[in-house]
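How a chain folds remains the central question behind the approach discussed here. For one protein, we set the task of working out the structure tokens from the amino acid sequence alone. The sequence in question and its structure tokens are set out directly beneath this paragraph.

_____
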Amino acid sequence: MVHLCFPRHLYNFFGIFIMLSRFSIRSVIVPALATMVLLASVGCQEVPITGRNAISLVDDKDITAKSIAEFKRLKSMQKMSRNPSQIKIVQQIGSRLSRTVFWDVPNAEWEFVVFHAPGVMNAFAMPGGKVAVFSGLIDFCENEDQLASVIAHEIAHVVARHTHEKYSQGWMLKPLGAATSIGIGTTIGGTGVYIPSVGSAASGGVTGITQSAFDRGKELEADHIGLIYMAKAGYDPRQSLRLLQRMEEDIASKGGPTVNGWLANHPGFPQRQIKINELMDEAMSHYQKIEESRTHTVIE
């Protein structure tokens, strides 16, 4: 759902504007006023499930076209899996989840692929519905529900248009006329690992927007949305918590961090587990309404 809005944090501009007007600093006031008018008139979207208002200053078709091109390039750079059972399980989960989220993102052209990368516990999704899962993550998951929790989390990033919002934030921080230099990057949410950007800015460099994962708030929101989606698709949401616990134990056993996560801006496992526990009753209510079989497939 897209509508006009005035983001709450921009109300702070009014106080600043009034203060500056007393000093008649026109060189500051006029640009500030122009920015306020622009931001007050742009479209905002309501994020499904959470209902949060998110600003969007970028063209959906442009973002999708760039993402599709980058996804195609990623597939040419990565080794594709030839494991039929892994491909089948990812396609099966993707099909169920894409049907579940259809009305929240009806224009997505979903594509689910598996990259052959033993030991790499990772997955990502890009605008337009392009999703990739690394074989190491499939090997690590105990059952279909655990794998579905990660794919649902990645799909949640697409549905919530987190990339659009990230671009919009970058656009607001750039000088006038320089916004077009923002390039496409691939941010990873499921396991907290980031794949370096494969896009570059028009100037030849890579902007900060492509060099970090989504912020903690977006990751926690994707956890929330993904948990509900997986439950509505008939996957046991409790397995999401189980997977995070196993990942935490696995990383700790290898001497890795468990509190701050791999990246400073990615929530630590304890924080994610607490939030998921708080949402579990809501998720279970959706899960229990599903009248289809809930067979846990063991991944070979």
Residues 60-160+215-287 form one domain.
